[in-house]
Amino acid sequence: MTIHLDGVRMNAITTAPGGFVNASTIFEFHERGSEVWAEYSGGMVARGFLVGTRDGASLSFRYCQRQTDGVLDGGASTCEIRRRDALVRIVERFTWASREGSGENILQELPAGSNAPRG
Fold first, then answer.
1. Stated pTM of the model
2. Is the pLDDT of residue 119 over 70?
3. Percent of the chain having pLDDT more than 90?
C-alpha cells in the first residue's frame, strides 16, 4: 500500500545532535507525482523548505532554512517512508552543505485533530 504524503503534517520525534529541528518544528508535506516538497517552521527554525523527488518509499531532498537567529543553512537528505502504529514516519539522513556535520532525524505524522500550529 502506497503512503501518500500530500497534506501530511509531521514533527520531529528524534533529532540529531547539533540539528535545528525539534518537536516544535512542524512540517507540512505536498506531493504531485514524483515531486515532494514541504514547508516547516517552529522551534529554532523561522522558515524552512524541502524540495525533492520520490521513488517508491525513498525520498531525496535538498533543504534550506533560516534559523530564528537569522543564520541561513542548507544541505541534502535521503529518507525512507515507513508506517508505525498507523502513523507515517520519515527517517531522514542529512548532510549539511553550509556547515560541518550530518545526522539522522525521525519525523512522525501528527495525529488527526492535533492542535499543533500550522507550519
1. 0.92
2. no
3. 86
* Cβ atoms of residues 59 and 78 within 8 Å: yes
Amino acid letter for position 77: S
- In this structure, are residues 106 and 23 in contact, taking their beta carbons and an 8 Å threshold? no
CB-CB contact of 112 with 11 (8 Å): no
Q: What's the mean pLDDT when you consider all of the chain?
A: 93
Cβ atoms of 45 and 74 closer than 8 Å = no
**C-beta separation of 82 from 8 below 8 A:** no
pLDDT, position 117: 55
DSSP 22-90: -TT-EEEEEEETTEEEEEEEETTEEEEEEEEEEETTEEEEEEEEEETTS-EEEEEEEEEEEEETTEEEE
